[in-house]
Design goal:
The chain is an alpha+beta fold. Helix content is 45%, strand content 13%.
């Protein structure tokens, strides 16, 4: 199971985003998509937002036996987000949800920690050191662990304690939740049929290119020289030269030259218009004419062209299997935690009482 605290620390530290997966491979990914908060039209200026009444920091939001979570502790967790959002009028509604989530995290973490204590689950210093090193290595370049933690109001010692607790919980849960969850072909086929409207794939091409870079401010003679170089390289390719070798030796695109100019798959709208028009209008495997964009002069070879359609079950099956495995494991984990909750007394403040789930919600694999 994913660590509760460690992941939050890394996310709050501002880790750089991974490169977006090829949009041309339009198959559903078994993960929920996060929606970025945007400025809502018609929202009044922050200055006109009603002031939120201050809550007593000592107010207990939830207690699990003798363990208590107070308003003050949640406000401390909330401080970094509040600092980022400033006087955003959406803050009031977001705070209510944050309070509820914080209360549920506290309950889950507390019952799991108490059970790990009861069972005397231990973790080695070596494992803690390895996890700490992983966290440090995932920070953005130039950011220290101390600086990242300062934004959360934590110290390295506190993080180390949190990490040790998370690892103890992880070790315990892994003895309760099987990792070899089985997913049948019938289950895969059923979800595929249920989600078939999400399996549409846009028209895509796979291509490689060679770029001879030209700046807008280059003199006419310089641009002519660079275009002539591109034309000469194109002739070599048309005569049978190895595209990957020529790209590695001549392309000015650092992102693709070491891959022999390979750009992977892409759909319409991802490339600048002249490049897109050429790629989607070009015969597969042909060496296209030299085209000009704001980046310079390109030689394109399309290696595959797929029409828009529906992604086949065979193509998406591995992702569906992984999604269903995760879903089953999450259900087992929820049942396990519910069992632990039933053994203790949990008292909620009215403001954070769990809301009953709405039955019949459609299943969404996400994208």
């Amino acid at each position: 199971m994913t660590a509760i605290v460690v992941g939050a620390i890394i996310a709050a530290a501002g880790c750089s985003k991974a490169d977006k997966a090829n949009a041309g491979t339009a198959t559903p990914v078994p993960a929920a998509s996060a929606k970025t908060l945007g400025a809502a039209p018609g929202v009044p200026p922050a200055a006109h937002a009603p002031a939120e009444p201050q809550r007593d920091p000592a107010t207990v939001l939830v207690s699990v036996g003798d363990a208590k979570l107070t308003v003050g502790e949640v406000e401390k967790q909330l401080a970094p987000m509040m600092a980022q959002m400033g006087d955003d009028p959406r803050m009031a509604s977001m705070k209510g949800r944050f309070y509820q989530q914080a209360a549920e995290r506290f309950v889950m973490r507390t019952v799991l920690t108490q059970e790990a204590d009861r069972r005397k689950i231990a973790v080695s210093d070596a494992d803690v050191n390895e996890a700490m090193a992983t966290i440090t290595n995932r920070l953005p370049a130039g950011m220290t662990l101390e600086a990242a933690l300062a934004r959360e109001g934590k110290t390295v010692a506190q993080l180390r304690t949190d990490v040790a607790t998370e690892l103890r919980i992880k070790n315990m849960v892994e003895t309760e939740i099987p990792t070899n969850t089985v997913v049948s072909d019938a289950e895969v086929a059923a979800l595929y049929e249920k989600q078939k409207d999400q399996m549409s794939a846009p028209e895509t091409v796979s291509a490689r290119h060679i770029l001879i870079k030209a700046e807008k401010g280059d003199a006419a003679a310089v641009r002519a020289e660079k275009k002539a170089k591109a034309e000469a390289l194109r002739k070599q390719l048309a005569d049978g030269a190895d595209f990957a070798k020529v790209a590695k030796e001549n392309s000015d695109d650092p992102g693709s030259k070491e891959r022999g100019g390979d750009l992977g798959s892409f759909s319409r709208g991802q490339m600048v218009k002249p490049f897109e028009d050429a790629a989607f209008g070009q015969a597969t495997n042909a060496i296209g004419p030299v085209i000009e964009t704001d980046f310079g002069y390109h030689i394109i070879q399309v290696t595959d062209h797929k029409a828009a359609g529906t992604t086949s079950l065979a193509d998406v099956k591995p992702r569906i299997i992984e999604y269903l495995k995760q879903k089953k494991q999450m259900a087992l984990f929820a049942t396990y935690v519910a069992g632990l909750k039933s053994k203790v007394t949990i008292t909620y403040d009215d403001s954070v009482k769990p809301q009953p789930s709405v039955p019949g919600q459609p299943e969404q694999m996400g994208e």
